[in-house]
Design a protein that fits this description.
single chain; 127 residues; mainly alpha; 2 domains; two-stranded antiparallel sheet; 2 strands; 82% helix
Length: 127
């Protein structure tokens, strides 16, 4: 369980960074609509929109982490992910080559079919 909780903590951090970025950009857009001075620079290069995004993100992540239902769900998902049989590198290589080969074969078949119908319709409409 300890190994899983480490991954859950990393997932919360990654989610927090993504939510902070999205919210900062959203606040920047909203404050930009209010006017050019609505998003002032507070300290160094820290804008009000970035601060609001980070604060809101921390609040959201803490709220999710404190929620019993959300924490239980996230921990159960992490435990189930440990049971997944992940493919080996050789299996991925074989599958990738199979997909590439089939894609090339289908592309050639579509090209030849298109060429045939183009020549046929060209011969019919020229005469």
């Amino acid at each position: 369980m300890e190994n899983v909780s480490r991954y859950v903590s990393i997932a919360y951090i990654v989610l927090g960074v993504i939510v902070a970025w999205v919210l900062a950009r959203s606040f920047e857009l909203l404050l930009g609509l209010a006017g050019p001075t609505a998003d002032p620079t507070l300290v160094a290069d820290l804008k009000l929109s970035a601060l609001l995004g980070v604060v809101a993100s921390v609040g959201i992540i803490v709220g999710i982490n404190k929620s019993e239902r959300a924490s239980t769900y996230v921990n159960e998902v992490a435990m189930e992910m440990t049971k997944v049989a992940w493919p080996t590198t050789d299996e991925i290589k074989k599958s990738s080559w199979t997909v590439i080969s089939v894609s090339v074969i289908v592309s050639v078949c579509i090209f030849l079919t298109d060429l045939f119908w183009r020549l046929l319709t060209g011969a019919i409409f020229r005469s």
